[in-house]
Automatic annotation (TrEMBL):
This is Autophagy-related protein 18b. It comes from the Eukaryota. Its main location: membrane. It is found in: Preautophagosomal structure membrane. It is a peripheral membrane protein. It holds the Pfam family PROPPIN. Keywords: Repeat, WD repeat. GO terms for cellular component: phagophore assembly site membrane. Signal peptide: none annotated.
Amino acid sequence: MANHSSSSSSSPILCASFNQDNSCFAVGTRDGFRIFDTNTGTLCYERAVGGFVIVEMLFSSSLLAIVGAGDQPSLSPRRLCLFNTTTGAALRELNFLTSILAVRMNRKRLIVILQDKAYVYELNSMTILDTIDTVPNIKGLCAFSPCLDACYLALPASTTKGSALLYNVMDRHLHCEIGAHRSPLAAMVLSSNGMYIATASEQGTIIRVHLVSDATKSYSFRRGTYPSTIFSLSFGPAKQLPDILAASSSSGSIHLFTLAFASSLRSKRSSGFLGFIIPDAVSDVLDPAYHHILHNAVPAGVKSYAVIRKVENVIDTSSSELLACRTNMCVITYNGYFQEYNLSIDAQNELSWTLGHEFNLLSVTLDKAP
């Protein structure tokens, strides 16, 4: 899920977020907010009462966490409203001393991110469980896994280097600190099962994936030679190891890293001579075999948010080798468009992709699907 936009004032989209299983998504605009069904693109709900910079869903329920843009007194950026779309009424409001920068939810916990604090609430009773002091976090950068068994919250640990603190918000304790980059963090995401965390720094050239349980580095990917801003990171659906990691950036390209293929190739390499003389972390960066690029997928410089929705692996039953990976990727651009891509990576590691459909998020009406 994405944080609210830091893009220019001309952007029609102020925030965009998918729900926990990517079946729905919400966008906040200067006029209100809208909720869409990801499968059909149908507009499910809209409310036009002013600008919103945070709209977070709780799966496909009627509960929303919303924060106004501050263009009117009733929509203060310091006020969190839990809103019921069925009744059209506010269930609860929480006021803070400073602006709310991010909100995350699962069925048990509500997380509120401020510039120097993170608050953990029990969702049903709205009892505050924990207050976490943080380093200055002006972007509201965070990552949250909705899984109750491995429910981690990741926050920046430093303003000068790319390290992250991981808290277990169910058991309420600090799990570990992961030092991932030399430069400050720009983006991070936890897999839905809470097992892996992916990070990118402000330099934007290297993306790293760590195993959360023991804070060990599993993969390093070189996104490119030239720095660019990473707007979003997204894992594919996770059973154990997620299959694909997607990254959108200011270059206008979307990068795909196939973790399942990487794991298969790593196993082959480690059994050979080179596996003994080239460390995994080094060869992961140098080997482009699991890196694919959708060039000019979105306009360069326009903030975008990409998520991997569905992944289908084709396995050779005789050898158990991965033959192909097919996936569905959805992209929201902050200039107001939704895109759905169909992707396939074959046994020769060649990527093919088509744009399934595209529509304007602001022109869809409740009575007409795109």
